[in-house]
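FW: tagging you since you asked about this chain on Friday. Here's the raw sequence from the shared folder, copied in full. Didn't touch anything.
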Amino acid sequence: MADPMYLAYHDEEWGRPVKGDDAVFERVSLEAFQSGLSWLTILRKRENFRAAFDRFSIPKVAAYTEADVERLLADAGIIRNRAKIEAVIGNARAALDLPGGLSELVWRHADPGAPVPRTMADVPAVTPGSKALAKELKRHGFRFVGPTTAYALMQAIGLVNDHLEGCVARSR
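HL: got it, structure written out here
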């Protein structure tokens, strides 16, 4: 049986549209931290991440200093990976410079016409859209945003709907 926290995330959040620069920044950041780990690990630490990163306020995180990096590295409530922490801070700085904002940039890559997956085998890990999104984010200075991470973001915030055909959450 799946963890109740994971089930609630699947049924109530995953695949639902998320817009707004700070909200999208949070998801970009959490997907970066998830790289190489279980999503459930991130879900269990999500409130700690929110507290540690000032609720993912882009201007606040962009202003972080080396002292903040050290503070975050000492925080047992989050994933203490220097490269990922520094990437989140750098990504906040890059997000500040985006014309139109992060949400607008990411949502340009929405693919509402993506085929409905019938089985898990039909769900891709990478798509042309995720490659394009990753490339554009990297062009603007973002890190930890490869095509697989970009596709996970696209799934999580509703740019594609990868709930399987017949899934109760598909039509919500």
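FW: The chain is about 55% helix and 0% strand.
HL: agreed, and Residues 82-96 form the longest helix (15 residues).
FW: great, closing this out.
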